[in-house]
């Protein structure tokens, strides 16, 4: 009996590994932030919106060293690309010093990478993604997969994905492209298909017809070198890859050839799984307008602290650091943390510490608040609270083991991967 995997084309469209009448097709979202570093810079400098903007790794203001981490879509029109030398970018798009500079055409703003700030914005996005899905695979600082099979159905998948997009833009202020498909690789292709600010939904029955006409390099995992080799073999599109001689593909690319052909046929049985243990748990909430009155701010901090402590308890996690975030208009991000003498699981301590740390912002106008526990451990929870540590009162009063971190940001991944025009600097 022939191996179905070697057939030129699948005989029916269904989720790989699921027999007819079995469990329903998975619904996977791939969320990819558009020009994320540039978008973050525009959050604190709104005058940069719509202007060519280049963010450089190893770049210092006024210098010509380093490489392009990301270029805005406006800058890409001049041939500026990620991983390009800053000197090359400057040749193609000279530096503009001032937003009000006359005759700014053909020039760009250049900014150095500020990873701490980008991670703080990414944490806001991450909180939304974890609120919208039970299973999230964080791929990088600006990219994640969500399995929402148990949250929605295919008949309303587009509305669900639009809700995720709108929450990110409304609550964080950055734009995401979202792809929806029955598996991870197809969802990735879908999110790349209509950038920027895209939303592409590919139901199971439309998967093959969606993939077939695409250039072969749009299949997830096909980088520039592989694409050139495939074109030399006469394989120009995903549809051509789907019907190519499987033995020849395996001979040329090894088992990866089999995998790439499966993806061109819409087959990918990988489950969306988290990447390792989480490093922190956080919850954040934005107010409709900046709030000065202390009471609603304290109420929100208390609610978030209880939610974070509950999440840590459900995940079986101990924590050594408790922190808060307060965002003042327009986007002035302030964080405070307190370190404990050892790992604990103590919900009341999380609430008390968060409220104490927030006292500094009691009368300040605040548009968003957040609470986080970090420095997690997942060993046997033999010590469930600080009652087991001598000197709890000292810690609660901030006299022992305290590190007050004051980070203030003033406002005004292909295999080789610079996918999406942005070089990846860290995990999401």
Task: Summarize the SSE layout with pairings.
Blueprint: E1 28-33, H1 36-44, E2 53-57, E3 67-71, H2 73-76, H3 86-92, E4 109-112, H4 115-132, E5 135-140, E6 143-147, H5 157-171, E7 176-181, H6 184-192, E8 199-201, H7 207-211, H8 224-232, H9 238-243, H10 246-253, H11 255-264, E9 280-291, H12 294-314, E10 319-328, E11 332-344, H13 347-358, E12 366-374, H14 392-396, E13 407-409
Parallel strand pairs: 2-4, 7-8
Antiparallel strand pairs: 1-6, 1-7, 2-3, 5-6, 9-12, 10-11, 10-12, 11-13
Describe the 3D structure.
The chain is of the alpha+beta class. It has three domains: 24-34 and 118-264, Alpha-Beta Plaits, CATH 3.30.70.270; 36-114, MutS, DNA mismatch repair protein, domain I (3-Layer(aba) Sandwich); 280-409, Dna Ligase, domain 1, CATH 3.30.1490.100. It has 14 helices and 13 strands. The strands form three sheets. It has a five-stranded mixed β-sheet. Strands 9-12-10-11-13 form a five-stranded antiparallel β-sheet, sandwiched between helices. A hairpin with a 2-residue loop joins strand 5 (135-140) and strand 6. The radius of gyration is 24 Å and the shape is globular. Mean pLDDT is 83; it is low at 1-5, 7-22, 380-420 and 423-428.
Overall mean confidence score, pLDDT: 83
**Global geometry:** globular
The succession of helices and strands, N to C, reads EHEEHHEHEEHEHEHHHHHEHEEHEHE
Tell me the span between the first and last alpha carbons. 46 Å
CATH class wording of the largest domain: Alpha Beta
Helix content: 25-40%
The total domain count is 3
DSSP summary: helix tally: 14
Class per helix and strand makeup? alpha+beta
Spatial order of the strands in the main sheet? 5-6-1-7-8
CATH architecture of the largest domain, please? 2-Layer Sandwich
Q: Radius of gyration, rounded?
A: 24 Å
Q: Could you state the CATH homologous superfamily of the largest domain?
A: Reverse transcriptase/Diguanylate cyclase domain
**Relative strand content:** 15-25%
